[in-house]
Design goal:
The structure is a single chain. This protein is of the alpha+beta class. Strand 9 and strand 10 form a beta hairpin. The chain has helices at about 10-15, 20-30, 40-50, 90-105, 115-120, 135-145, 185-220; strands at about 30-35, 55-60, 60-65, 70-75, 80-85, 125-130, 150, 160, 165-170, 180, 220-230, 235-240. Helix 6 crosses helix 7. It is elongated and about 80 Å long. The relative contact order is 0.11. The strands form three sheets. A five-stranded antiparallel β-sheet has the order 1-5-4-3-2. A five-stranded antiparallel β-sheet has the order 6-10-9-8-7, with helices on one face. The chain has two domains: about 5-120, 2-Layer Sandwich (TATA-Binding Protein), CATH 3.30.310; about 125-210, 2-Layer Sandwich (TATA-Binding Protein). The protein is built from seven helices and twelve strands.
């Protein structure tokens, strides 16, 4: 299974809170698989190159750039080559790409028309993703340090607006929060933003743990001999036992 590199930081974070099967299902739900009429891999590669696009081997699949920033994968499924677009892809870019390739080849290559693809890409106006966040107070603190005015309701639900997009964080019991993203924002930017929040949350969590450790050390008559911040921003603390 393939997934756009734009999703990788988030996908890596999700592995901590989702089983492999659930993560694969989530990745699959973010894709639109478009069957094609390419006869074989050679036909696919030659057709793309003649149309001015690249076709790079990537594992068992093929990677194609639409432009410098946007790309997608081709995967061989049930004997047919499929284009794997993601639901955050720009519809206009995909339409132009498909027209370019089919005009260059002089034949129809994509089984689904652009209208059908556009309909699938625009589905799910409300998207829900799992997160690594478990502490609601710490999450609110993290969001506020990002300059986001977050509100925590009596039921523990946390709401905020990021770049005009409403986000709602919900927690079921002791499980990590999920985040609900409403409307159709630029998902590339939203994934990057959520990844940044995840990193900031970890930093805030480390600070809380550090302060609690110092407090408990003092309570147990221990003194801090030295502190060292490592390259990964983790902290090594050496304690002395006071007699």
């Amino acid at each position: 299974m393939s997934v756009s590199l734009a999703l990788i930081p988030l996908a890596l974070a999700l592995r901590a809170v989702m089983s492999k099967d659930k993560l694969d299902d989530w990745v699959d739900s973010m894709q639109v698989k478009v069957e094609t009429t390419f006869e074989n891999e050679l036909d696919l590669v030659r057709t793309l190159q003649l149309a001015g696009y690249d076709a790079e081997k990537y594992g068992g699949n093929i990677k194609t750039h639409i432009n410098e920033k946007n790309f997608f994968y081709w995967e061989h499924i049930d004997g047919k080559w499929h284009a794997l677009f993601t639901k955050q892809d720009d519809v206009a870019l995909l339409e132009q790409f498909m027209r370019d390739v089919e005009l260059s080849a002089g034949r129809r290559l994509f089984v689904l028309g652009t209208e059908a693809i556009q309909e699938q890409l625009q589905q799910d106006s409300v998207k829900v993703f799992p997160t690594n966040f478990r502490d609601g107070g710490l999450l609110v603190r993290t969001l506020k340090e990002f300059g986001v005015n977050a509100y925590e309701k009596a039921d523990g639900e946390i709401s905020c607006v990021v770049q005009g997009t409403p986000l709602t964080f919900r927690q079921n019991g002791d499980a990590p929060f999920t985040v609900e993203i409403k409307s159709n924002p630029n998902m590339h930017e939203m994934y990057a933003y959520l990844s940044d929040i995840d990193e900031e949350y970890k930093r805030c969590l480390q600070t809380v743990v550090y302060e609690k450790l110092k407090q408990r050390a003092a309570e147990k008559n221990l003194s801090i001999e030295s502190e060292e911040v490592l390259e990964d921003n983790s902290i090594v603390i050496t304690l002395n036992i006071q007699r």
